[in-house]
Amino acid sequence: GQKIRLSDYRPPAFLVRHVEMRIALHDGHAAVETTIHARRAEGADPAEPLVLDGDHLSLVALALDGTAIDPRRFDAAPDRLTIRDLPGSDAFALRIETRLEPETNTELMGLYRSNGIWCTQCEAEGFRRITYFPDRPDVLATYRVRLEADHEAAPVLLSNGNPSESGDLDGGRHFAVWDDPHPKPSYLFALVAGRLDVLRDGFRTASGRAVDLAVYTEPGLADRATYAMDALKRSMAWDERRFGREYDLDVFNVVAISDFNMGAMENKGLNVFNHKYVLLAPDTATDADYAGVETVIAHEYFHNWTGNRITCRDWFQLCLKEGLTVYRDQEFSADERARTVKRIASVHGLKAQQFPEDQGPLQHPVRPTQYREINNFYTATVYEKGAELVRMLATILGEAGFRAGMDLYFARHDGDAATIEDFLRCFADATGADLAQFALWYDQAGTPELEVQESFGDGRLTVSLRQSLAKGAAGTGTEPMHIPVRFGLVGADGADIAAEPVAGAAEIEGDVIHLVTAEAEVVFDGLAERPRLSMLRDFSAPVTLRHEQSREDKLALARLDPNGFGRWRALSDLLGEALRAAAVAADEAPLDPRLVEALVECAAEERLEPALRAQMIAIPGESEIARLVGANVDPEAVHRAREAAIRSVARAGAERFRAVRDGLSRSGEPFSPDASSAGRRALGNALLMFLSAAAAEPAEAFAAFRDADNMTDRMAAATILAHRFPGSSEAEEALDRFHDAFEADPLVLDKWFTLRATVPDPATLDVVRELSRHPKFTLANPNRARALIGGFATGNQRVFHRADGEGYRWTADRLGELDRLNPQTAARLATAFRSWRSYEAGRREQARAALSTLAARPDLSRDLRDILDRTLS
Ligand code: DPP
Ligand code: ZN
């Protein structure tokens, strides 16, 4: 495949002002008539032909200003339409007719049918599967779309913008016209048509605009959309309060679709969602599902300003909208729920998803400079690390400076297709800050290391900081960057000590050290006692911290740090280091009793909210331990080390855990998905796991499973049974009951597939083989494919990485099959192999062989080939 490079960017030669579409939907095909009102761009070469993008298109008819074009003037290939001899500077109207087969579109890009419902996905390059078009984000136009379909098959007809005319037609057909007055790039085009139920509500914006809100679902499911609707209204109000952003159309529609590659899509005025991020009920959805719906609803809504009103100039700038919008949805959740709990969850996700990407063969900068397939760059680096960069900007500039920069960005670039340079310039202009060095974060790939050493004497604390960045797979620069390091000096009484820094090499503002050189030192004087240094509070920069700090100090911070994040980090560092060492030494030594005691005390600390306690006592997962080991990983040793740690904590804590768990129960209270109820369930279920491990028998978990009145508790108990007591009659019975109770509910059945695929027992390989022949298994539905293949390959370290390579081969075979239907989802799942080189030699060879066999298939998609080539290189 050809590489697309940022340095090759050229402005469009033709601009499109307005697009009219007439789309007639029929069983088996769709007829699309598109009229593009365009003209040559100012200063463009008058001899340059018009080249439109296509993807597997066949042209039915082509006319210029109402007259068919002489076939000698154009070439229509499936992937490109070239028209010569167009007017030098006059506007023209080009009418293009195409014919599509939505029913055979298994890639789920462009126009397709899911469970009978017509829908579209155009980001990044799906619009070119509907019509020939300059399918690039810097070509913005208004749209008028007329949809026509059989009334019975599609009583609901939706597109972007505001509804205009509608009416009946002959033969049981009807039509609806939608007008989108806001110029938008083609990737934000959408249509939905089908038999749908709807939940309606309304919102009045700060300036008084009445907005009709609707969430559409498959028939019979609209009552599961109430939480999504509530989250939407809260998102709209929050964006007004926090960023002064109001909604700008008369309607806002959300549609839940069963077959969807992504989580959701921010099409202007018509967000299309994977139904997993809309549909909820206490009996079918976990607290994590509720939090996920809230996040994704907010994320897509926030894109209306950061993404739609201001879009990206080209796909290299993807983080301009994604990193910023993730930052905004994280802030929303922090405000709506609990800030520290949210921050810990985000950092945990960053380390689990982005760090391995940044430290392996799929490494790329937050703003990549080249790609072969843009679908493969919707990554944790662009999204999650991109959000961290925006967060650092807020830390560096302070709340008022950050807000001033955002206000200027909205004012200056509304209606633009912008770049990262445009974005940063707004913050520089609004605050006077020089952000040239900060901009390196967008271009230099990899996780910087931050080494910290401290020494104390005569009331003086000297802190030495050193940053370094290794060259990785991306081969980008390694210059020192601007790292904001939030810190605190914690006294013996658990309060922060206010200490004056002595003038040094690094600048300190409030509680932030600005490290801008490779090395720097800061000195605090006049200290009556030696403080404990709490570094990188709230994870103020996405770096690996190597702080030479005694275990005593870490244990003290785990107990005392007034910053909740600091307490969590102290514990998770101690646990991570203990588990890493045990896995490397392949021993099953019990944990340091002082660490165990600290964990048990945290679990019982009444003044800490339960959600935070649950996070603090979580034992790092096997993939996290593997990442900490880093090289020559033996997943069996990782598994044993983790099990030994769980037993240490469980035995020492059993009695107090029991008391805390009993104290949490609120029997008789109706289910509520709010954050504090969810936190109590999280802690209760974490404790149930330890209690079951201590008892070494499944009775209590089985009782919890049987008596559960919500999916969070049911799922937690079932996981304990299946994962800790595989093959027991209790585990078998729970899995069977779960299956039989929820077989008809696809989102719950997905949980069942994942639950079984993630059992850390060698026999699971036979189970996943059998599950791939289950009557309800299909590769055509991305959620189902992810539940089984993704669940196994990313959620079952021990069996995926089996020494005999069978886990790798089974996964690679499934990816080969899936690639023929849905390359985008296959490529995404293939990233499960990204850390293969960090395993021990035997597994490395097995993984290489499995990947090479898959890569040798002649018919691979560009998506999967790109991931495999980079993974193997
Ligand atoms: N739909 C994806 C998202 O919102 C891509 N824009 O992140
Ligand atoms: Zn997004």
UniProtKB/TrEMBL annotation:
Entry-linked NCBIfam families: pepN_proteo (TIGR02414)
Residues annotated as domain Peptidase M1 alanyl aminopeptidase Ig-like fold: 446-547
GO biological process annotation, one example: proteolysis
UniProt-listed Enzyme Commission number(s): 3.4.11.2
Cofactor(s) in the UniProt record: Zn(2+)
Domain Peptidase M1 membrane alanine aminopeptidase positions: 227-438
PANTHER family according to UniProt: PUROMYCIN-SENSITIVE AMINOPEPTIDASE (PTHR46322)
SUPFAM superfamilies assigned: Leukotriene A4 hydrolase N-terminal domain, Metalloproteases ('zincins'), catalytic domain
Position of the signal peptide: none
Name of the protein described by the UniProt record: Aminopeptidase N
Residue intervals of the Peptidase M1 alanyl aminopeptidase C-terminal domain: 552-872
Keywords annotated in UniProt: Aminopeptidase, Hydrolase, Metal-binding, Metalloprotease, Protease, Zinc
Record family assignment: Belongs to the peptidase M1 family.
Catalytic activity, reaction form: Release of an N-terminal amino acid, Xaa-|-Yaa- from a peptide, amide or arylamide. Xaa is preferably Ala, but may be most amino acids including Pro (slow action). When a terminal hydrophobic residue is followed by a prolyl residue, the two may be released as an intact Xaa-Pro dipeptide
Natural source organism: Aureimonas flava
GO MF annotations in UniProt: alanyl aminopeptidase activity; metallopeptidase activity; zinc ion binding
Pfam families per UniProt: DUF3458, DUF3458_C, Peptidase_M1, Peptidase_M1_N
Keyword match Repressor: no
Enzyme class: hydrolase
All residue ranges annotated as the Aminopeptidase N-like N-terminal domain in the record: 94-188
